[in-house]
Structure formats: C-alpha cells, structure tokens
Design a protein that fits this description.
The complex is a heterodimer of chains A (388) and B (188). With 388 residues, chain A is mainly α. Chain A has 15 helices and no strands. The longest helix of chain A has 26 residues, at 96-121. In chain B, 31% of the residues lie in helices and 31% in strands. Chain B is elongated, with a radius of gyration of 24 Å. Classes of the chains: A mainly alpha (388), B alpha+beta (188).
Chain lengths: 388, 188
C-alpha cells in the first residue's frame, strides 16, 4: 500500500495520528518503497534479452531441424515450469505481479508451441482447437494459482477467443449467424441453447468468480476476474446496437434472448447472495439491468430513441451502482458515457428536423448543456474515495 | 497438499503438450506419399509471411462444374506417381478429402510453410515459366492431405506447348467482337 503525503496530512488533521508518528511513517516508507523507475529498467532489460533470444532463434531458423526446434521449445517450457515450482517450494513470498508474469510467460510458451507444431508438421486447423486444448491444459494452473489481473486477463481472453472461434467455425458450417435473426425459421432448441450459452460466457464468469471470492485464499484474483467479465458484459450491451457481436443485436429470436437473460439473472443472484454488501448489490443490479434491456432489444424496438433508452437503462444502473458502492472512477466514466450517448442522440434527432440550421443549433445547445450538467454532476455527486 | 496441487497444475500442461507432439508426430507418419504438380496461386502474392499459397494441378482432372469446391478426389496411379485424378470414385488407389477443420478452398488450394531465407528462391522458381513445382503430399487413409516437401523439375516441351495453347484459348474466348463503326449522315 502506498501511503501518500495527502493521506498522512489528512490523518494528522483528523487527529488520528500525531506529527511524530507521521514522520516515522514517512521515514519507513522512504526506506522500504521500491522505486518505480528501477522496476521499469528491470522490465526493459528483461524485454531486451527476450527479444534478443527470439531474434537469434529466428535468424537460425532453417539451420535448426524441426525436431530440434520443438525440443528446445519443450525444454524452455520445462525450465519455466520448473522455475515456477522452485519459487513456490522455496516458500518465498513472491510479489503477485512477478508471479503472474511468470505464469504468463509459461502460458505464452505453451500457446506458441501449438503454432510451432503446425509449422513443423505442415498442419493447420481452425484456431479453436489449439486454443481449446490450451485452455484445458492451463486452466487448473491459472484459475488455481493466479494472483492478479494478468492471470485473470490471460485466461479470460483465451476463453473468449476460443468461444468466438468455435462459434465462427460452427456457424460457418451451418449457414451463418443470420439464422438467429430470422423470426420465421424454426431452429432446433439445441442450436438456440448453444447460441445463448456461448454469448453469455462473460455473465457466467461474473457469477462464478463472485461465488469463488469468498471461498478462496486469493480473493484479489477472483475480484479482478469478476471485474474483467463485468466490463465485457457491459461493453457487449453497449455495442449491441452497432455490431452484431456474437449473440448481440436487436431482432434476435426469442428463445436465444430468453436464455441470455435467464443466465444473466442467474449470475445476478449468484453475485447478490455470495457478496452481500454495497459492491455486490451494485454488480447484481448491473447484471439485472442488462437482462432487462436484452429483452427490450429483442422486441426489435426501432428508432434512435428506443436504442438510447435501452443504453441509458444499462449505464444509468452502472452510475447508480457506482454511487451505491462508492466506485468513484466508475461513476465518472458512467456519467461521461451517458453524456456522450445523449449528445449522439441529440444529433440523431436533430437530423430529422428538416436538416435545417435550426436543428444543428439545437443539437449544439443540447451538447453544451449536457456537458455542463455532466461535469457538475460528476464533481458534486461522485463518491469520495475508491472502495471497490 | 498445496505443493502437490501446484506440482500437478504445472505438470499437466507439460504432459499435455508433449502428448500433443507425440500424437501429431505419429499421425504425420501415416499415409502414402504422392507427387502432385502445383502452380502458384497468385504470382504477385505468392508469399504471405512464412508460407506460400499454391494451387494443385491434379493431372487429368476434368471439372464437371468449374466453380464448385472440390471436396473429394479419386487418385488413380501407382504411388508416388499420380496418373489421373477424378471426381468420380472408380478404382481409386487413394481418396483425398477436404479437411473439415481447415480453411475453405477445398482440394485445389494448399499452403506450405517455408523458412524465410529460402522463400525468395521458391518464389523465383515458381515464377519461372520453364520450371514446374511438384509438391510431395502425404494422403492418409481418412483422406487428409498434408504437404511434405516441394521440388522443381524443368517443364517438357509438350507441357509448355499445352500451356501456351490453353492461355491462347482463354484469351480468344474473352475477346469481344468489335462491330465496324456505323457512319451516318449528321442530322440537323
């Protein structure tokens, strides 16, 4: 924890500590803190060595026979795995970021091994296969021993990419994603279930991570995973109107929409019950808002106003949840996003006003008013401090 | 207990990757080798990074439908020489099937990984109108076609003549007959 000068002064003013204690804290922090610049240099040095190694291998690529290259790759994997094991066996208290960086390198070596195999044996396959096998092999390590955002992000990115690739390949074989927008078609339930499940993966992860948070010795990891997944859910809904992202978009058939909303509500209740408290309630509310707007977008409500209202429901809940839970940064982002969406809406509506200069003037005035109000709201109502 | 779990979590990926290598290697040994002539896919775009894309020139193949994707081919001949390839299955020495995993394009296209330093040499040879590329492929019992190695041989005079005749026929079929200009007195 970094103790800032501002905090020290605030505590002294509040009478929590006296001036002597404050100066002792300052001394202690000065002695034990690691300078950021040093870490940056270490990172740069490591990166340079890594890049150098890669260039040396790449330059002698054809001089080294395929079997030997794969053998070297495997040896590197074993070495990094062994180093990880040794670090833990020593009983040392490794920095969480360093630990995750080692996990990341191990995982990256594993992933590139599949690409390397394909190159040596001249094979190729749809990407979901190597990524899927990688997930099977590395999930116990990442989920069981990840400590922070890097491991969480790596796992989540691999999961989403594998799902998207499989979805792309599977639908490519049966006619494309358009079948889910054709209200007349009679699709088998298994297909709707597949579509609903695969598009709800971030929601399922939010629920699962929230449930694990109370039961694990590494709550920080599950918290980061939950946050990353929640961000993905909100982004998905925000862009649903713009792109036909996997499983998003107005006009989708009812069975898929119902499955998606149901999974979102299940995730919301999982969060509500496993994390009682303001933060858990806020997260559950956001998921529930997404579930409701999903139903709304399925009703194929046309028009810019309807789209804006659905958007505002989701982001309004984000802002409200941030107020409730004390998430300062999130509240400010939410206010900014809502303001931006309102401005876009005002331009969308103004274009209907006979395309005259009057319309543009009104849109411009609205933009200024919204921006002014947003800044006032953001300053005045933002929760103090960041209690996530 | 925790140390044991940690050891298992680390050993699992290592074991899995080694297993993947072993499975890939044993699968790669199955099948018989055939020599198939190839031509470059697009002379301007022959190399994308570290692999070449090419088209198979299956000998004796007569297409029923010019534009469809070939998903299955009957190979007639004595390995590794392909006498003829046909879309009808009769007396096949081997059957090649399009892989369901891979990229679309059927059995007419393929990619071949080459080392970057050798890439220019391959590109020059594929562009040379006097040289013919021969791809040695391994065809498995289930039909999977995997390229093994690429070699070149000079084209025979008959082959060069046949290619020139085919190119000329294509040019003639595309040529548009230009009607003589009609001259009429100007109307005022």
């Amino acid at each position: 924890m970094q103790v800032s000068e501002r905090k020290l002064k605030a505590w002294v003013d509040a009478g929590l500590i006296d001036a002597t204690t404050a100066s002792r804290i300052r001394e202690h922090e000065a002695q034990t803190s690691r300078p950021l610049g040093l870490w940056a240099l270490v990172g740069l040095g490591a990166l340079a060595i890594g890049l150098g190694l890669v260039s040396v291998v790449a330059a002698n690529w054809d001089a080294i026979p395929g079997m030997a290259r794969l053998g070297i790759h495997l040896v590197l994997l074993a070495a990094s795995g062994g180093f990880l094991w040794w670090q833990q066996a020593r009983g040392g208290d490794i920095n969480a970021h360093f630990h995750d960086a080692l996990l990341f390198i191990f995982g990256a070596l594993g992933l590139t091994f599949f690409g390397h195999l394909g190159q040596v044996y001249q094979t190729s396959s749809s990407l979901w296969q190597p990524f899927g096998i990688w997930l099977l092999l590395f999930t116990p390590l990442l989920l069981g021993f990840g400590r922070g955002w890097l491991a969480a992000l790596m796992w989540m990115a691999a999961l989403c990419f594998t799902a998207q690739q499989h979805w792309d390949w599977y639908l490519g074989n049966i006619g494309g994603a358009g079948i889910f927008y054709d209200r007349e078609a009679r699709l088998p339930f298994s297909l709707s279930l597949y579509q609903g499940l695969i598009s709800s993966i971030p929601a399922i992860v939010v629920g699962g991570a929230a449930a694990m948070r109370g039961r694990s010795a590494r709550p920080e990891f599950w918290k980061k995973l939950e946050q990353i997944a929640l961000v993905l859910v909100v982004i998905w809904f925000s862009f649903a109107g713009l792109y036909r992202l996997i499983g998003a978009g107005a006009g989708m058939i009812v069975s898929v929409v119902l499955i998606q909303s149901l999974l979102l509500l299940i995730a919301a209740s999982a969060v509500w019950f496993s994390r009682p408290g303001n933060s858990g309630q806020a997260t559950a509310a956001i998921l529930a808002a997404c579930a409701i707007t999903n139903l709304g977008s399925a009703a194929a409500l046309e028009g810019s106003l309807a789209g804006a209202i659905l958007f505002a429901i989701v982001w309004g809940t984000v802002a409200g949840g941030a107020l409730h839970a004390g998430w300062r940064g999130v509240f400010q982002i939410a206010v900014g996003v809502l303001a931006l969406r309102l401005i876009i809406l005002s331009f969308e509506l103004a274009s209907d006003l006979l395309g005259s200069g009057v319309g543009l003037i009104l849109a411009g005035v609205a933009t200024l008013a919204i921006a002014f109000a947003a800044v006032r709201v953001s300053k005045r109502y933002a929760p103090k401090g960041d209690a996530t | 207990m925790k140390a044991l779990l940690w050891g298992v979590a680390l050993a699992l990926p290592l074991a899995g990757l080694t297993g993947s290598w072993a499975i890939t290697h044993s699968r790669a040994q199955q099948g018989t080798d055939w020599d198939v002539p190839i031509r470059g896919y697009d002379p301007r775009d022959l190399l994308r990074g570290h692999y070449i894309t090419f088209q198979y020139d299956w000998p004796g193949l007569k297409r029923e439908d010019e534009f469809g994707i070939i998903s299955e081919l009957c190979i007639i001949g004595q390995a590794p020489v392909v006498s003829r390839a046909s879309e009808l299955s009769q007396n096949c020495a081997a059957t090649a099937r399009m892989s369901s995993w891979g990229k679309g394009g059927g059995l007419e296209q393929g990619i071949f990984y080459v080392p970057q330093t050798a890439a220019q040499g391959y590109e020059d040879k594929l562009r040379d109108p006097k040289m013919k590329g021969i791809m040695r492929v391994r065809i498995r019992d289930d039909g999977l076609v995997t390229p093994q190695s690429l070699s070149f041989r000079p084209k025979s005079a008959a082959e060069i003549a046949a290619e020139e005749a085919a190119a000329k026929a294509e040019r003639d079929s595309l040529a548009v007959d230009v009607p003589p200009p009609v001259v009429s007195p100007a109307q005022n």
